[in-house]
Specification:
Immunoglobulin-like, disordered N terminus, 931 residues, Glyco_hydro_31_TIM, carbohydrate binding, Gal_mutarotase_sf_dom, eight-stranded antiparallel beta sheet, Galactose mutarotase N-terminal barrel domain-containing protein, TIM Barrel
């Protein structure tokens, strides 16, 4: 929550920054046109390291003064860490430099080696010095000694994935390595499709767009700002290529927390970084983009498992001013029969916006506890917001204990003073182990006060309403009115090279100062770490500390929602995309941002449904809940100054919500299984269409549709007054989940679908078995209903097969895993061949499902040529003799062409109802197809 801080600058400052931007851009153009920044390095030695890698030494070719002096000697470290992952690490050979802390993001430390003066060969190609070490590796490292450059190639076909060489005609330099300016580039084929490099709102869609700015530095700039560094720092991209029909994908991570500009020109990509080291990880990927995310999350951490209820619908608003208002929201959802699992309070519950407190008037503890007892009795959950800024107040216990434990970030030896909602605040230093212990204790104290079910950590870029060195002004109210205006007495800090570095990255799209509206970059963390280096790690370290706190306090699966993220944040928390706007454009942009975070290893993601501010129109809110019902994280959230926009406010929106969320709650078993797959392999819950259809090049830039898992496609309306939607269908048969008799034969072209106000098109692909339940008003209620299976074959096919899977567990357990007695995993299979249909299951650890009494009540098979007869069923290999309760029914399927006058039958939907198949036991059922 950060209303009006999206553009919190007075017009005079904006004008000054705009003029400064023009001057800096003009200066940069002059510099680039006259000469390159550096002359590169020479590789003077290379040898095998004790840990199986390679160590090389680089010597500067020629000194330059642009952006400061060059570092004369560099160490190169190269290692194949797995068969699919190659690391290239370059740093100062003589002095330790800042790196992402190894305890924060665990990984192998490069060795140190003495400088060598022996000369390396002019060129080399080194899978490794010993053949044994290179066996099985898909990536080959090669180099040119002078000027030094390196390339990473694919062993199987020789394809170059990364090439840092620079020709005279190239607009980029050879390797440049200065204390506060590092530059390195790679050449790219023009037909490569790139994705990632965030967080930003990309108006051109999910594919990186040449010459759009990609600045990576965490900032409290709302999601309405296009092509600008936002809340998260993710210097990773996926490269998808299709050469002669041969598809390949790979990933590149530059693990560096310093601010950077990334310049993508279409045929090259250049990093300009203001500190740290070059720590590249190359992921070989493969034909499937899923393999890239798998390999990436294997390094940075698998996504956190989410509790089942977190996949339900959430409602929040900044402005639920007391317990009665919050309670009325819950009751109104119930009256409107709209599903709701989680009710949230923004900072309204706090006493004067102070973390871990309750407003004694509006949120008195006895009344709040009585409300939560009712909420919890229904299986619903309650979550509140906290901000990292701790109010400077001697009567505030959280502050006093923090001061006693010395947990705050320092400036010139004293806690750095900033301002957020409570007024003057200090920021906890989550790089300090003592801070983590203090934070854990504060969460414990608050949970003893209020039984919250998760925690929302906001404003953790971190956001500051002031800039520079500040002091409290006596007799001046702080916070004032409005609360986001700076009420401290502040002076700019530009005296250090950390606050005013030689190279200015494009912060906030206007080359703003690094410390503008955040912590001064010359402030210090634990052990003297500079904010300059650690700035973009703040939200990451905040999420880790919060996760550790919940795990330490209760052996229960935590749910944490964070605004600011970094590489690896998905291992600890979910993310929402921050302050968006209630406009049709923002509705569309939300899809690309969601899909990017799946690539970043943060699959539990969504945007504020209906927009955070200002008031959405009724029509827009209809369309937004239809889309938002299929975000992995589905939450309506609004601003204090906007009118109410809960889904029951408009009758028409309530109808759309019942329809779309009704389908979501039926799909919860599928979504929860995707949650499990994300946890074990990194696979995004919501994915670009090309993830399942990598050969379908028409989908490479598709940003208006997406997949849930491998085979459920969502095609929302994104335009005002539209009653139809053009949707791109990859080749194959697609069945409408809301009316399974309606079929689309995908031919790789756009099809026009009916989409009246209350309708969203959701289709399931052929060869799929989709586990579903009957839904409910809460996820707990939905979990008690019988299961059904939807089996899809290609329409009219005489032969076909289909597969599906289902994971279920006790969602309070910290981990999602099999073999603990509290989880069940099932593979489903189906075939049609020679007029015989067969559906069966293979069960692992069926005990849990049996204890829950779950059964399969119905099987629906789509695409058959005829109705069924002679049903045979066995359970755990034993025939079931009495099938009198089971019955067949059939309906004709109609293709989309029916809407254009073709009423010819196109196959059948056959349902077998009245089944009582125990979910925890293997079953097999078959029947003959009649005419």
């Amino acid at each position: 929550m950060m209303f009006f801080s999206k553009s919190p600058w007075p017009p005079t400052i904006l004008l000054f920054l705009f003029i400064l931007n023009i001057i800096l851009v003009s200066s940069a153009k002059t510099t680039s046109s006259t000469s390159k920044i550096g002359q590169g390095y020479s590789l003077i030695s290379i040898e095998e390291a004790p840990n199986g890698g390679l160590i090389g030494h680089l010597h500067l070719n020629k000194k330059t003064n642009i952006y400061g002096p060059d570092i004369p000697h560099l160490q190169l470290f190269v290692k194949h860490e797995t068969e699919d992952r190659l690391r290239v690490h370059i740093t100062d050979a003589e002095k330790q430099r800042w790196e992402v802390p190894y305890d924060l993001l665990p990984r192998e430390k490069p060795p140190k080696s003495a400088l060598h003066k022996s000369v390396a060969g002019e060129t080399g190609e080194i899978p490794f010095l010993s053949e044994k070490s290179s066996a099985g590796s898909e990536l080959v490292f090669s180099y040119v000694s002078n000027p030094f450059s390196f390339a990473v190639k694919r062993k199987s076909n020789g394809e170059t994935l990364f090439d840092s060489s620079s020709e005279n005609s190239d607009p980029f330099s050879n390797l440049v390595f200065k204390d506060q300016y590092i530059e390195i580039s790679t050449k790219l084929p023009k037909d490569a499709s790139l994705y990632g490099l965030g967080e930003n709102t990309q108006p051109h869609g999910i594919k990186l767009h040449p010459n759009d700015p990609y600045t990576i530095y965490t900032a409290d700039q709302s999601a309405i700002n296009l092509n600008m560094d936002l809340y998260g720092s993710h210097p990773v991209y996926m490269d998808l290529r299709n050469v002669g029909g041969q598809v390949s994908s790979h990933g590149v991570l530059l693990l560096n927390s310093n601010g950077m500009d990334v310049i993508y020109r279409g045929n090259s990509l250049t990093y300009k970084i203001i500190g740290g080291v070059l720590d590249f990880y190359f992921f070989a990927g493969g034909a499937s983009p899923l393999s890239v995310v798998d390999q990436y999350t294997q390094l940075v951490g698998r996504p956190a498992p989410m509790p089942y209820w977190a996949l339900g619908f959430h409602q929040c608003r900044w402005g639920y001013k007391n317990v009665s208002v919050t309670e009325a929201v819950v009751e109104n959802y119930r009256k409107a029969k709209i599903p709701l699992d989680v009710i949230w309070n923004d900072d309204d519950h706090m006493d004067a916006a102070k973390d871990f407190t309750l407003d004694p008037v509006n949120f008195p503890r006895p009344k709040l506890l009585a409300f939560l007892e009712k909420v919890h009795s229904r299986g619903m959950k309650y979550i509140v917001l906290t901000d990292p800024g701790i109010g400077v107040n001697e009567s505030y216990g959280v502050f006093k204990r923090g001061m006693a434990d010395d947990v705050f970030i320092k400036y010139e030896g004293e806690p750095f003073l900033a301002q957020v909602w409570p007024g003057p605040v200090y920021f906890p230093d989550f790089l300090n182990p003592k801070t983590v212990s203090w934070w854990t204790d504060e969460i414990r104290r608050f949970r003893d006060l209020v039984p919250i079910d998760g925690l929302w950590i906001d404003m953790n870029e971190p956001s500051n309403f002031c800039s520079g060195k500040c002091k409290i002004v006596k007799n001046r109210p702080c916070p004032g009115d409005p609360g986001w205006e700076c009420c401290l007495d502040c002076t700019n800090i530009t005296t250090t090279r950390w606050d005013d570095p030689p190279y200015k990255i494009n912060v906030s799209g206007v080359h703003a100062a690094l410390g503008f509206k955040t912590i001064a970059t010359s402030a210090t963390h634990y052990n003297g770490v500079l904010e300059y280096d650690a700035h973009s790690l703040y939200g990451f370290s905040h999420a880790i500390a919060t996760h550790k706190a919940f795990m330490a306090l209760e052996e229960k699966r935590p749910f944490i929602l964070t605004r600011s993220t970094f590489v690896g944040s998905g291992h600890y928390a979910a993310h929402w995309t921050g302050d968006n706007k209630g406009t049709w454009e923002n509705l569309k942009y939300s899809i690309s941002t969601m899909l990017n975070f799946g690539i970043f290893g943060v699959p539990m993601v969504g945007s504020d449904i209906c927009g955070f501010y200002p008031a959405p129109t009724e029509e827009l809110c209809n369309r937004w809940i239809e889309l938002g019902a299929f975000y992995p994280f589905s939450r309506d959230h609004a601003n204090f100054y906007s009118p109410s926009q809960e889904l029951y406010v408009w009758d028409s929106v309530a109808k759309s919500a019942r329809n779309a969320l009704g389908m979501r709650y039926k799909l919860l078993p599928y979504l929860y299984t995707l949650n499990y797959e994300a946890h074990i392999s990194g696979a995004p819950i919501a994915r670009p269409v090309f993830f399942s259809f990598p050969n379908f090049t028409e989908s490479y830039g598709l940003s208006t549709q997406f997949l849930l898992g491998s085979s459920v496609m969502v095609s929302p309306v994104l335009r005002k007054k539209a009653t139809k939607v053009k949707a791109l269908f990859p080749p194959g048969t697609w069945y409408n989940l809301f009316d399974m008799t309606q079929t689309v034969i995908g031919r790789g072209q756009y099809a026009t679908l009916d989409a009246p106000l209350h309708v969203i098109n959701v289709h399931v692909y052929q060869n799929t078995i989709l586990p579903m339940q009957q839904g409910g008003l809460t996820s707990r209620e939905a979990r008690t209903t019988p299961f059904s299976l939807v089996v899809t074959f290609p329409s009219g096919a005489s032969k076909g097969d289909a597969k599906g899977k289902l994971y279920l567990d006790d969602d309070e357990l910290p981990e999602m895993k099999l073999g603990n007695g509290y989880s069940t995993y099932i593979d489903f299979y189906a075939t049609v061949n020679e007029k015989t249909v067969k559906v069966w299951s293979d069960v692992q650890d069926g005990k849990y499902a049996l204890q829950k009494g779950w059964t399969i009540e119905k099987v629906t098979v789509l695409g058959l040529d005829g109705i069924g007869e002679s049903l045979a069923v066995d359970i755990d290999g034993m025939p079931v003799s009495d099938m009198s309760s089971a019955e067949f029914s059939a309906s004709d399927l109609y293709h989309l062409e029916k809407l254009e006058g073709d009423t010819k039958k196109k196959g059948m939907m056959v349902e077998v109802k009245g089944l009582e198949l125990p979910l925890g036991k293997k079953f097999s059922m078959s029947w003959k197809m009649g005419i």
